[in-house]
Amino acid sequence: MRRRDFIKGFVGAASAWPLAARGQQSPIPVVGVVSGRSRDADAPLVTAFYKGLSEAGYVDGQNVTVEYHWVEGNYDRLPALMADLVRRQVAVIATTGNNASALAAKAATATIPIVFAVGQDPVQMGLVASLARPGGNATGINDFRSEGDAKRLRLLHDMVPKATRVAVLVDPANTATAESTLQGTKDAAAATGLQLRILNATTIGEIDAAFATLAREPTDALVVASDALFHSRAAQFATFTARERIASAFADRGMVAAGGLMSYGTDAAENARQVGLYTGKILKGAKPADVPVQQSTKFYFAINLQTARVLGVEVPSGVLSIADEVIE
C-alpha cells in the first residue's frame, strides 16, 4: 500500500469516529409519571412537577421524555400500567401524591428507581427501610396527609359547631388512605362527641349511591378522604353539598376552589414539585437508597366564603384568622 493511500484511509476512518460515538450515546431517558387523578384535576400538580424537574436541569422534550399516565381513581389499572413501564425499562417511575400508585410501582420493580409522594409513613407501607436511608429503589416525599385527618374534622366542627351527624366518605380500594382517614376522624369524633356514618365508594356509581344516602338520611356535615376518584368529581361534590346544604371538608385545596366549604392538608403542588426535583436528582445519578425521604410538614387551610354564605354558615373570626386562603 502506498503511503498516501494509507494516510487517506486513516483520515477517513478518524473522521467517522464522531458519528459512531453519537450513534452509541444513550437515548434520552424516559420518566413515567403515574397519577391516580384525572388530567384536568391534576393540572396544577403537572405544572409543579415540571417546575421541579427543570430546577434539576431537565426539560421535557429536550434532555428527558416525560410520559404522564392518569388512572382517574381506577386503581385496578395500576398493575398493568406499571408492568408496561417496567417492560420498557423507563429511567424513573414517579408517582405524585397517591399511595396506591407508589405501592403498585414498588410491587412491580425492585430495580427501576421510584420517586413517590405518599400521605402515610413510607416505612410502615414497606416502601423504604428508613426515612434517612431508604435502602432500596424508592425514595420521595412523605406529606403527612394522614396527620391532617383529625385536624380536618376538628376545624369543620369549629366552623359548624351545631353539627352532630357527620358522614365520612372513603374509597376502600385506596386501602392505606381509607384506613388512616377513618382512624383520624374516629379519634376526633370521640373527642368532640360527633356521630359518624361511614360511606364507601370505589366507582362513580357508588359516589352517586352515597349521595343518595346522604340526601335520604339527615346529615350535617361531610368529610371526604383524599382520593383521586373523589378529586376527579370535585364539581359534583360542590353541586351536591350546596343543594343538600351539607358542610364539607376535604384534604385538597382544589376541592374548595371547585365549591367545597373547606380543606386542610399539605400543599399538593409543592409536593409534586419536590417529586420532580427528586426525579431530576435520580436522573443525574443519585441512588434512591441514599436519598433521604423528605418530610413535608406545612399544612394548608382553605375556606370558600361564597360556599359558606350559600350554606348559611357564619365562619368564626378565629377560624378565618388562621386560614391560609379565603376564597371570596
Structure description:
The protein is of the alpha/beta class. It folds into 2 domains: 30-143 and 267-298, Rossmann fold, CATH 3.40.50.2300; 146-266 and 300-327, 3-Layer(aba) Sandwich (Rossmann fold), CATH 3.40.50.2300. Helix content is 45%, strand content 19%. The chain has 13 helices and 13 strands. It has helices at 3-24, 43-55, 78-87, 99-108, 148-159, 175-192, 204-216, 228-231, 234-244, 253-257, 268-283, 305-311, 317-321; strands at residues 30-35, 65-70, 92-95, 114-118, 138-142, 165-170, 195-200, 221-224, 247-250, 262-266, 294-295, 299-304, 325-327. The protein has a 7-stranded mixed β-sheet, with helices on both faces. A 6-stranded parallel β-sheet has the order 2-1-3-4-5-11, with helices on both faces. It starts with a helix and ends with a strand. The model is unreliable at 1-25 (pLDDT under 50).
Topology:
Blueprint: H1 3-24, E1 30-35, H2 43-55, E2 65-70, H3 78-87, E3 92-95, H4 99-108, E4 114-118, E5 138-142, H5 148-159, E6 165-170, H6 175-192, E7 195-200, H7 204-216, E8 221-224, H8 228-231, H9 234-244, E9 247-250, H10 253-257, E10 262-266, H11 268-283, E11 294-295, E12 299-304, H12 305-311, H13 317-321, E13 325-327
